[in-house]
Each structure stands twice: as C-alpha cells, then as structure tokens.
C-alpha cells in the first residue's frame, strides 16, 4: 500500500514516461499503455503518416518500434520509410543507398522492426507477447485494425473488435507499450470540423469511444480537388490532422504538408508557409536546398 504523499514524491520520476511528438506546435502524447487511433480515408496517406510517426518517435526516444501491417509486405514498408526520409521514391530494394541507411538509424537499427501478418489475431497476439517481453516501453503500430479477425465467421464485428482491442490494451498495459493503430473511415465528402464531428465517420465508432485515449483524423483537401481555401490561399499540399481526447471532446486542428513530388509529411514551419504561398519561391528553395531551422519533431 502506498500513501498519497509517497505518490507525490514519485512525480518527478514519472516525467520520464511522458512521451510526445510536437506537430504544428502541439505535443501529441504517446504514453506507455496508451491506445491512439488514426482514422483516414483511402488515399489520404495513412500509412505514410504512420511511418512518419514511427521515424519521429524512434528518433526522439530510441525505444523499440514495431510496425505491423496486413496490407503491405516488409520490403514495401521499408522502401516507403526510406522514401519518406530521403524525399524521393525508391522502387527497388537496391535503390536505397548505403549513405541514407547510415544517416538514418531508423533504417538500420535492430530496435526498428516491421511485420506483415495474415489477419489472424491469435497468431499475431502470440508474436506480440514475445516482442513485448523483450521490448518494454516500446511503440507498436498496427496498420490497419480492421484487418484483424479472431475467426472468419464471427457474427458481430463490433464485438469481435472489442475483444481484440481489450486484449491489446491489456497487453500494452502489461509491457508499457504505446499502441498506435489506424482505422478505416466511412467514405464521404470533404467536411469542415466546425460543422460536424469528424469522429462520427469512424467505422466501429463505439469501440473506439470505449478504448482510445487519443483519436486523430487525417484529411488532405487535394484528394477532393480542393487547392484553395475560402480566402483564396493556396492549400495544394496542406493536410489537416484533427486531434481529440475522445469522440465528444474538444478538437484540435494541426496543419502539416504532404508533397506528392517528395513523398511524405513535413512539419508546418515558416519556410513551408513561404514555399506554399509562392510557387516561384518554392522552386528556389528546392534548387538551393534551403532548410528551416525549426526542429522536425
């Protein structure tokens, strides 16, 4: 048994477990045992954004990271990660230069792993238990959660997912793993968060309401053919990341950039604002290799 006074004395030590990434001046929390949900339509860059978080969290905390996918094999994910870090596409394994691997430890570290799975939750769970024992306080990414099944003929999908998420949460708490999962979104038109809650579009919404500590929603206006905002400003590469503690809580809107010519998400900083507002300046920035002094994470 522990007293409240003893707990108060532990506050300083507990600060070591506060982990976040700063995006658009907002600290996204990824505490051990926390479940974070990312929702996105197909074509929004969901996987690339998950890899963006993967690289950022490892770069900042150097804790073990596991990326699990039922859509893309390990080599495909590796090339996407390399493309994200280099700002150029890599179509074949031997296209990734040794210099890039040496420059970015996320590509070569034994702490960074990727795993393709075949939809079987029980099989994946067994692998996670072993990984969790060896990698306490790490980070787990699952892209995407709808690909997990206990058995193919389970009648109630919400009930099945509820069991999976409950067991995943128990596992995360036991091994103090921060879990980030992605979810499919009901298809629809571009929306403005001030007019309707983006989280109402989540598939299996009741499940996330019970289990997710943090919910994010990724949206890129250009996917809908929108290149200017209501005031005529150029937003051709602007992405919105809506963040909330739960489905009914206040929503924070974060801005990021996604340049299809340089695959991946980039931070919202002074240089990017200038680049996006003036294409001619953007060409000069690219030509001379100018960089902003803002830290990327």
Question: Could you describe the 3D structure shown?
Answer:
There is one protein chain. The protein is an alpha/beta fold and 297 residues long. Helices cover 35% and strands 21% of the residues. It has ten helices and eleven strands. A hairpin with a 7-residue loop joins strand 9 (238-244) and strand 10. It is globular and about 60 Å long. The protein starts with a helix and ends in a 9-residue tail after the last helix. The model is unreliable at 11-15 and 291-297 (pLDDT under 50).
Layout of secondary structure:
Elements lengths: L3 H6 L1 H4 L5 E4 L2 E4 L5 E6 L5 H16 L3 E5 L4 H13 L11 H6 L8 E5 L4 H14 L4 E5 L13 H19 L2 E6 L21 H7 L2 E6 L18 E7 L7 E8 L2 E5 L3 H8 L1 H10 L9
Parallel strand pairs: 3-7, 3-8, 4-5, 4-6, 6-7
Antiparallel strand pairs: 1-2, 8-9, 9-10, 10-11
Overview features:
297 residues; alpha/beta; two-stranded antiparallel ribbon
Spans of at least 5 consecutive residues with low confidence: 11-15, 291-297
Rg, nearest Å: 20 Å
Report the β-strand fraction as a percent range. Answer: 15-25%
Mean pLDDT: 81
| Overall form | globular
Computed structural class: alpha/beta
Main sheet: strand order: 5-4-6-7-3-8-9-10-11
The sequence of SSEs as H and E is HHEEEHEHHEHEHEHEEEEHH
Question: How many helices?
Answer: 10
Question: What percent of residues adopt helix (DSSP H or I)?
Answer: 25-40%
* Distance N to C terminus: 39 Å
Largest sheet: 9 strands, mixed
User: How many DSSP-defined strands?
Assistant: 11
